[in-house]
Design brief:
- The complex is a heterodimer of chains A (about 575) and B (about 190).
- Chain A is of the alpha/beta class and about 575 residues long.
- Chain A is built from 20 helices and 23 strands.
- In chain A, strands 3-2-4-5-7-6-12 form a seven-stranded mixed sheet. In chain A, strands 15-14-16-17-19-18 form a six-stranded parallel sheet, sandwiched between helices. A four-stranded mixed sheet of chain A has the order 9-11-10-13, with helices on both faces.
- In chain A, helix 19 links the parallel strand 18 and strand 19.
- In chain A, helix 1 packs across helix 2.
- Chain A is globular.
- Chain A starts with a strand and ends with a strand.
- Chain B has one domain: 3-Layer(aba) Sandwich (Pyruvate-ferredoxin Oxidoreductase, domain 3), CATH 3.40.920.10.
- In chain B, strands 2-3-1-4-5-6 form a six-stranded mixed sheet, sandwiched between helices.
- The longest helix of chain B has 14 residues.
- Chain B is globular and about 45 Å long.
- The chains are: A alpha/beta (about 575), B alpha/beta (about 190).
- The interface between A and B is large, with 62 and 62 residues.
- Strand 8 of chain A pairs antiparallel with strand 2 of chain B, so a sheet runs across the interface.
Chain lengths: ~575, ~190
């Protein structure tokens, strides 16, 4: 069988296919998104869907497992917080068909608001968690997780991190094993978690953890690699790769494939074979704490940081090994953080509202980039949906006058995910807040996934779209207005009206993402050198396609990068002398 | 032996396609390969980096400071930013295209002048080319990535046909022509 180069996430999707999974539900979240996107290619065998949020996705998968199918859900680390409620009780109930939930952590926060360690959820929910270190293990561990799930009657967590999920490495694929739907039998004592039934189930869960610990002692996914008796390194996942790269055969390794529950006797045996025992783990000290609890003398966070992503350089630095020589440019290199794309509809909205200097309660998505200067369009960003409920709290605390100068901004997909409940809270409790849904017809930041508001399923098939205007009216919002974010005057008029209105309002700022293939672009705009006075008013749009430079005559003038400009026109609105003209 | 290639640029320039094609070519050559990518937030116009490693056995998906045999930069400022990752004696290929980051646009920072010349003066082995002009010549400004892939390819595995076959398999059918031209212009640069 030839080897193919697959992304970790693609390999998980392949594992789902090979394991006979038939039901997949997920909410997009970097770095987990591509698992579900790739599961779609197996649509003849696997039903895949985007759910409105991770809690729903988990419950759909759990319902499918109860119904006897092998099922799967995927989310990023913070998504598991949303799905934690069903997870903790699903642990008590167990499964019928096998169920696996992939959770992708983001050490270093490449695309996240925190770097929480999902292993804590596995411990708290008392469910097994596997952690692959490359794409081959992503595939193998996914399949193994279904065997474990059914053998031990439990949902299984599959922990990935950015460098595993988004790295390509070689895998050998195998054919799919069809798994028959298991019969469903009503079993109230197991499946209805009321106190009388849940108490005995908790006993079952504790015994299950003991049984899994015993399994972990001899399971081949936890393995010793003996090279040296000087240093022994206990590690899992990406940390194993970094340690192996830095130390090579100069250390022995205990590579854990299952990070919850952790083995006891096999770790003690490994410890006895080496003089110095070191735990290498990104983020929290989970393995280290376990080792201490079982009486092992280990070093860990005394050497390594609890923050950020590791690499081979982290290992070398911690252990005092030499680092390769390198050069620096010798001059400050300006930073280049991500920005709203040229032609992004969010730019028009932020540019328009900046005039009012409002308090802006922000949310999670591409539009969070509007927080950066010069748009500086956000006061807070916490988690999915928090813009709406957080604005309500802010306004309640500060009184009715505050509502006249404050807004929430939330994307279409985020609004569906968990903004709706906050809006209901505002209406129900007679709040005055104004909420703007930035409806760009797509889930943008995670790389263009369809969602319940854009009328397309995961595979592009048309479906019923959530009617945001009707939804707002149905929950009791009487003031609903739709604006085009590129019509700056209109946005300003409507935002002013709605902030002043003595009742809650919903404004829908509607224009599709500029990166969508269906969006037609205008020719790049051009600067008339006879009119441009180099005043830099256009720069206040924060567009990456426009900058001001001295021309050959020494005068400063705006310059538009024709490779980026899509002719959205926000800069020509901002241009006071009218120097920015339509292109040809 | 493991060879390390660091591909850097600005989100949206198409570094991922270049790394994907490299990964496939080295896999077909029988190497162990790891390609590490950045998805999500950083893709939106930020500084992006992709790591390509191949050899007998590759462990870490990352390339650290002083470890890159080849630094392939899609933008001039990014070449300066990522210079520390280049190994002593390693080779730098950079596009001379300049894209102002927001801090420069807003006047809070200065885009360094004569980056390529300064790198050369510091003794770095630099090959600088105007990949944007070559992409335009090939028929699309979007083919900058394939031009630069061509330039790197010649130094990694000088059998042009192997690369062209993989490109044909990886790009949309209607862009094969442009990409073949772009690759060839880069290859010969």
């Amino acid at each position: 069988m030839s080897k193919t180069l697959l992304l970790g996430n693609e390999a998980v999707a392949r594992g789902l296919y090979e394991a006979g999974v038939t039901v997949v539900s997920a909410y997009p979240g970097t770095p987990s998104t591509e698992i579900t996107e790739n599961a779609v290619q197996y649509k003849n065998n696997i039903y895949a869907e985007w759910a409105p949020n991770e809690k729903v996705a988990f419950e759909v998968a759990f319902g499918a497992a109860t119904g006897g199918a092998r099922s799967f859900c995927a989310m990023k680390h913070v998504g598991l917080n949303v799905a934690a409620d069903p997870l903790y009780t699903a642990s008590y109930i167990g499964v019928n068909g096998g169920m696996v939930c992939a959770v992708a952590d983001d050490p270093g926060m490449h695309s996240s608001q925190n770097e929480q360690d999902s292993r804590r959820h596995a411990i708290a929910a008392k469910v097994p968690m596997l952690e692959p270190a490359d794409s081959a293990e992503c595939l193998a561990f996914t399949k193994l997780a279904y065997t474990l799930s059914e053998q031990f009657d439990t949902p299984v967590l599959l922990r990935l991190c950015t460098r595993i999920a988004h790295s390509r490495s070689l895998v050998e694929t195998a054919p799919r094993q069809e798994v028959a739907l298991k019969p469903y039998t009503k079993n109230v004592m197991k499946n209805v978690m009321m106190p009388a039934m849940a108490r005995p189930r908790h006993e079952v869960v504790e015994k299950r953890t003991d049984a899994l610990t015993a399994w972990a002692e001899t399971a081949p996914l936890n393995r010793e690699e003996m090279h040296s008796d000087e240093v022994g390194i206990i590690c899992a996942g990406s940390a194993y790769l970094y340690a192996r790269e830095a130390m090579g055969d100069g250390a022995s390794y205990f590579k854990l494939g299952m990070v919850n529950p952790l083995p006891v006797e096999s770790l003690k045996r490994f410890a006895a074979k080496v003089k110095r025992l070191i735990v290498v783990e990104e983020l929290d000290d989970i393995i280290e704490t376990h080792c201490r609890k079982i009486g092992l003398q280990v070093e860990g966070k005394s050497l390594f940081p609890r923050t950020g992503e590791f690499s081979q350089a982290t290992i070398r630095a911690a252990l005092g090994l030499p680092q390769p020589a390198f050069r620096t440019f010798g001059q400050e290199v300006p930073s280049r953080p991500p920005v709203l794309c040229a032609g992004c509809p969010h730019r028009g909205l932020y540019y328009a509202i900046k005039k009012f200097h409002p308090y802006v309660s922000g949310d999670i998505g591409c539009y969070t980039l509007g927080a950066a200067a010069p748009l500086s369009g956000m006061d807070t960003c916490v988690c999915m949906g928090a813009s709406v409920s957080g604005l309500h709290g802010f306004n309640v605390a500060r009184g009715p006058e505050q509502a006249k100068t404050s807004l929430a901004v939330i994307g279409d997909s985020t609004f569906i995910h968990s903004g709706i409940t906050g809006l209901i809270d505002i209406v129900y409790n007679k709040g005055l807040s104004t909420v703007i849904v930035l409806d760009n017809s797509i889930t943008g930041m995670t790389g263009h996934q369809n969602n319940p508001a854009n009328g397309l399923r995961i595979d592009g098939e048309p479906t019923t779209a959530v009617d945001l205007e009707a939804l707002a009216r149905a929950i009791g919002i009487r003031r609903v207005q739709v604006v085009d974010p590129f019509n700056i005057d209109e946005v300003r008029r409507v935002v002013q009206e709605e902030m002043a209105a003595p009742e809650p309002s919903l404004i829908i700022s509607r224009r599709p993402c500029a990166l969508l293939k269906t969006v037609k672009h205008n020719p790049p705009l051009r600067v008339d050198p006879a009119v441009c006075i180099g005043c830099k008013a256009c720069l206040q749009t924060g567009c990456p396609a426009i900058s001001v430079h001295p021309d050959a005559d020494g005068k400063q003038r705006a310059r538009i990068d024709a490779t980026q400009c899509v002719g959205c026109g926000v800069c020509s609105y901002a241009c006071r002398p009218g120097a920015i003209k339509e292109g040809n | 032996m493991v060879k390390n290639i660091l591909i850097v640029g600005v989100g949206g320039q198409g570094t991922l396609l270049a790394s994907k094609i490299m990964g496939r070519v080295f896999t077909e050559q029988g190497y162990d390969v790891k390609v590490s990518e950045v998805h999500g937030m950083s893709q939106r116009g930020g500084s992006v980096v992709t790591y390509v490693r191949y050899g007998d056995a590759v462990y870490s998906p990352l390339i650290e400071k002083g470890e890159a045999d080849l630094l392939l930069s899609f933008e001039e400022l990014e070449a300066a930013r990522w210079l520390p990752y280049l190994k002593e004696g390693g080779e730098l290929i950079t596009n001379t295209q300049q894209m102002d980051p927001m801090s420069v646009i807003m006047g809070n920072a200065v885009y360094p002048q004569d980056v390529t010349a300064k790198l050369k003066a510091a003794g770095v082995s630099v090959l600088a080319l105007d990949a944007l002009a070559l992409a335009r010549q090939a028929g699309s400004v979007r083919a900058v990535n394939t031009v630069l892939l061509g330039t790197a390819a010649r130094r990694l595995l000088p059998d042009k046909q192997i690369w062209l076959e993989t490109i044909r398999a990886c790009v949309p059918a209607k862009t094969i022509d442009v990409n073949e031209k772009a690759f060839t212009l880069g290859f010969e640069a």
